[in-house]
Write a structure and sequence with these properties.
alpha/beta; Rossmann fold; five-stranded parallel sheet; two-stranded antiparallel sheet; 37% helix; disordered C terminus
Amino acid sequence: MLKPKPRAKRLSGKTVLHVLTGSIAAYKTPDLIKQMKSEGARVVCVMTACAKEFVTPTVLRTVSGERVYSEMFPQDAPFGVLHTSLADLPDLVLVSPATANFIAKMAAGISDDLPSCLALATRKPILVVPAMNDQMFTHPVTQRNIAQLKALGYHFVDPIEGDLACGRVGVGHIASDEAILDAVQQILSKKNSHR
């Protein structure tokens, strides 16, 4: 009896730079990292200061097997110029969860910390996964910022309707891990993918 062929890993040989920002949805990130790794990806995490309020660097280091970055000028940085070295490292930058604040910073070109500097310095595809309060997501300023980034070639996985941290049900709940994985795979499977 022939053994079935093992399923091909969707992200084999790919490196994902996973930027986490300060949304409550960050607590779900370890499961997403494990799924990306099981699909063959190398996942390196970069955190904003606020993201540390929802998930610890130790947890991310444990599930990714990689060093976690958050400081602009760590004493023991393995690279010369950290933000540009990290910007050049991946095949794709995944900003998940993405807060309204971080989306606004990317749209305005503000680069005042490590995650926002590397988002501006990279020329790799950027996939943004918003997660926030429904009123923040639907606010015209946030929608303008998203439209502006889409016009520049940024990719998005839209939030879904669900339970929000404020107690309401609305659009702003982070998309499912499977939807995010599908988007990562689709972007990376394009031969000449670029922003």
